[in-house]
Amino acid sequence: MKQIYDLAGLFEDAQLGAVLGDGKTFVDCVARRPAQEIENEYRARKTTPGFDLKKFIEKNFELPPAAASGYESDKALSVEENVRRLWDVLTRPPAPESGSLLGLPFPYVVPGGRFREIYYWDSYFTMLGLREHGRAGLIGNMADNFAFLIEKYGHIPNGNRSYYLSRSQPPFFALIAELLAGLNGAEPVYRRYRAALEKEYSFWQAGADGLKPGEARRRAVRLPGGEQLNRYYDDSPAPRPESYAEDARLAAAAGRPAEQLYRDIRAGAESGWDFSSRWFSAGGGLATIRTTELVPVDLNCLLYTLEDTLAKAAGSAGDAAAAAGFGARAAARKAAVLKYCWNGAAGFFCDHDLVSGKPSGVISAAGLYPLFAGIADDAQAASAAAVVKELLLKPGGIVTTTTNTGQQWDAPNGWAPLQWIAVRGLENYGFCGLAGETARRWLSLNDRVFRETGKLMEKYNVEDLSRPAGGGEYPSQDGFGWTNGVYAALNKKYGT
């Protein structure tokens, strides 16, 4: 079926002209009749006097619901109680396929705001709150939706939209399975999701066979010592349909091959960190993005967890050979992460730069994933905790990076998932005081903003608590799924 972004003339004119404002709005529309008929009429009429493109779109397409739900929080109630109420506001029924929306068989939770569909890595952090509030059935529904997507498409896309199908997001499905295992028992959960977990692993490993040291193919990388790790990637070297105007204009001004720029932009979107100085050339801006030249420390920690979970699932099924195989892969990945991503000079974990052959110098909250995954040694963990104290812990929690570039995944912004990774990682190595201080600062900031606005936000300014977060390709969103989930989970242990 032809999608809106397949209609070259109408789509390009509408997006470059920002006819509907946010570029995501148009690709979320649903055609009222066959898309090619609409395109043909547009080509015939667009040069006629008085033609109004916005009215033409509104006549021929059903626009998505406005971001605002009409829901208003009750500031007389606690944040916790408002989060409990928000789950029903953010829950959507099973979705039939419609326009760019990929159908899902079970209910699911959306983040909120302009994000009207399920998102992959958001959902794990959302589930943390659902667990605290006794919504295990909804967690199971969402996990079953992800298994459905893997079975149908071979991976979990960025979100359930057709324009996201060329990429995934940070692979948290193993952690979702482990979360469910804690609720429902390991054996039935592993049995239910083992095939889906294996298929997701195959997606990330596609292209790994036959790689020689120094080579990369799709998401697989072979390091100089023969070790195999992974990177973020996207299978399409074209502008993102939902951000077509931004990408096309950037490419026109960047002075570099457009296809590689688009590939790196899309890989940055797959990382979830869209966008950050983490992915840029030193001192450069978005036009220098080089995501595919980096081996991300967080991605490889998550794939270590996936391998470890697959080993446990195989062992639970009595498949000793598969358990040993995945256990060996996990051990090899752990050793490779420690070898290539530990920056001894900085005393912190960083992404590995494939061009320089060394860890990058970017200090970011992603460097706490080895603590979260439990693969750092005690000395590395102690050094990382010292870096947290010195560079990353701010009045409102953990800052994303130490650099302020105007991008949303840089200073001064803090994000809910990174607070959880930091707190849990520090707890894993006994730095409970620092973990608690991080959690309490984050909870206090969430409480403050809620008292002032009645909203829980997608991201926060953790450096200047009097100012909102900023940056990014769209206004800061409220709702907000993963903030709600992390707040509820941290509040249970660290709330006052």
Work out the radius of gyration.
22 Å
Give average pLDDT, whole number.
96
Extended strand count: 16
Low-confidence stretches: none
Shape: globular
Helix content: 40-55%
Q: Per DSSP, what share of the residues sits in E-state strands of 2 or more residues?
A: 5-15%
Strand order of the largest sheet: 5-6-7
User: Please, how many helices?
Assistant: 18
Walk me through the structure.
With 496 residues, the chain is mostly helical. Among the domains are: 4-62, no CATH class; 241-291, no CATH class. 49% of the residues lie in helices and 7% in strands. The protein is built from 18 helices and 16 strands. It has helices at residues 8-16, 23-27, 35-45, 53-60, 79-90, 120-132, 136-153, 173-184, 186-205, 244-254, 258-271, 297-316, 320-340, 369-373, 378-392, 416-428, 432-453, 481-494; strands at 30-31, 61-62, 91-92, 108-109, 216-217, 220-222, 228-230, 294-295, 342-343, 348-349, 352-353, 358-359, 393-394, 397-398, 413-415, 459-461. The strands form seven sheets. It has a three-stranded antiparallel beta sheet. It has a three-stranded antiparallel beta sheet with strand order 8-11-12. Strands 1-2 form a two-stranded antiparallel sheet. A hairpin with a 5-residue loop joins strand 6 and strand 7. Helix 10 packs across helix 11. The longest helix is centred in the C-terminal third of the chain and has 22 residues, at 432-453. The protein is globular. The chain starts with 7 loop residues before the first helix and ends with a helix. The mean pLDDT is 96.
